[in-house]
Every structure is written in C-alpha cells, then in structure tokens.
Design brief:
With 217 residues, the chain is α+β, with helices and mostly antiparallel strands. It has one domain (17-216): Sandwich (Jelly Rolls). Helix content is 15%, strand content 33%. The chain contains 3 helices and 16 strands. The protein has an 8-stranded mixed beta sheet with strand order 1-2-14-11-16-9-5-8. The structure holds 2-oxoglutaric acid. 2-oxoglutaric acid binds at residues 114, 116, 125, 130, 143, 152, 173, 191, 193, 205, 207.
C-alpha cells in the first residue's frame, strides 16, 4: 500500500489524554487515530509485516507465545523478552510516521516499538509489568490499539493502597486509542490483555518504548 497515504501527523483537536483508572499514571487519548486511519494502519501492518514464528525456548523447554510479535528499534538498541532476544528490525515509513505523531502528542521520545498481533480472541498477553532493566528506572510507554476492541486489565502490585480505590480494573481499548503508561506505573501496577474467546477478529497493539543503549545500563 502506498506510503503516500500515510495518515496526517496531527490528531484531532478534541483528542486529549484523560485518566482511565485509579492508577494515576495511566491516561487514555480515545480516538488518537480516527476510525478510517486506524483501519487503514491495521490493514497495512497485518498484511505487510512478515510475522515470525511464535515459539520460544526457556530453561530448555519450548513454549508457544499466544500472539505474534515483531520488534523495531533504532540502530544499537537491543531488548530481551522472557530471556529470548528478539530479532531487531528497522522502522518502516508507516511505523516511523506513527512514532513521530505519538512523540509529538505525548512529549516523550521513543526509540523502539513492540508490535503485538492478537490473531483472534484466543491470543492474549498475561499479567506483567514492563519493567525490564533495559528501559531504565522510569519507563514511559505509549500503547496504540488497532483492529478489534479488546479488554485491558490492570491490578496493583502488593495489593494496592487501601482507601485509594486501587484494585483490579478492566476497560476497553478500541481501535485508534492511545494509552500512556507514565513514570511509576510499571513499578506499582501489572497489566494484561486476557483471552476473549468470543472475539473473532484480530487486533494489533504497538507499545512505543525508550530502551537504554547497552553502555548506559
Ligand atoms: O496489547 C496491549 O494492549 C498490551 C501489550 C503489552 O502489554 C506489552 O506489549 O507489554
């Protein structure tokens, strides 16, 4: 598909980051991309990306990742996920244009993106925090959703703070929504996208990250 059709660099003037949960470090810009733009981006990524095998080895055993993934980063940036080094790919013009728009909107610089493709509602990501040492002590992650709406759940680590309403919460991430996980979120909360067997369509999620170069870790 022609890169000339890349969506514009500006989200609509109505688009703002608003709190979505008791986790004050979590805000959502609903409709960061319009429906038409996000449908177009989803189709491009789903069809143009070559999706690698989703099996990995840990402690000598072979596992199947319940989704497909690609990892794109600036030169020199490497990242290990569950102790498996992801093959690093460059930036397509589409991924780069999305990165620039996310950077301008959030005011944060990113140098890598993890692309998760949930082929249907059986694909998922389990409870975790994105707190790998590669991202330094204060990670900020911007997460763009495309394709089918899926539930996103958060839960406080260590039971949360009593009286502050910190408990497990579920909300829907729709196509075009941008979720910002700010400094402090990963150290206090976990998140997941649970299986939803009733969902038949696919979803692609892009998590933009800033990974420290090996010398700075
Ligand atoms: O798909 C999502 O919304 C979340 C993805 C995620 O948790 C991750 O990439 O670490």
């Amino acid at each position: 598909m022609a890169s000339l059709l890349l969506p514009s660099q500006q989200p609509s003037a109505m688009c703002n980051l608003k709190p979505v949960s008791a986790a004050s470090q979590l805000t959502l810009a609903a409709g960061f991309y319009s429906r038409d733009e996000s449908d177009w981006i989803y189709q491009c990524l789903q069809q143009q990306q070559s999706w690698p095998d989703n099996h990995y080895v840990m402690s000598g055993r072979r596992f199947e990742l319940p989704r497909l993934q690609t990892w794109h980063a600036d030169p020199g940036i490497v990242y290990s996920y569950s102790n498996n080094l992801l093959e690093t790919r460059g930036w397509s013009s589409l991924l780069l244009s999305i990165r620039r728009r996310v950077e301008m909107f959030t005011g944060h610089d990113f140098n890598a993106v993890l692309v998760n493709y949930y082929r249907d509602g059986m694909d998922y990501v389990g409870w975790h925090s994105d707190d790998e040492v590669e991202m330094g002590p204060a990670p900020v992650i911007a997460s763009l959703s495309l394709g089918q709406p899926r539930c996103f759940q958060v839960r406080p680590l260590q039971g949360g703070q009593e009286g502050q309403g910190e408990q497990e919460e579920t909300f829907l991430l729709d196509a075009g929504d941008l979720l910002l996980m700010a400094v402090g979120f990963q150290s206090r909360w976990q998140h997941r996208v649970p299986p939803q067997p009733d969902v038949t369509g696919g979803r692609i999620n892009l998590t933009f990250r800033r990974v420290l170069p090996p010398a700075a870790r």
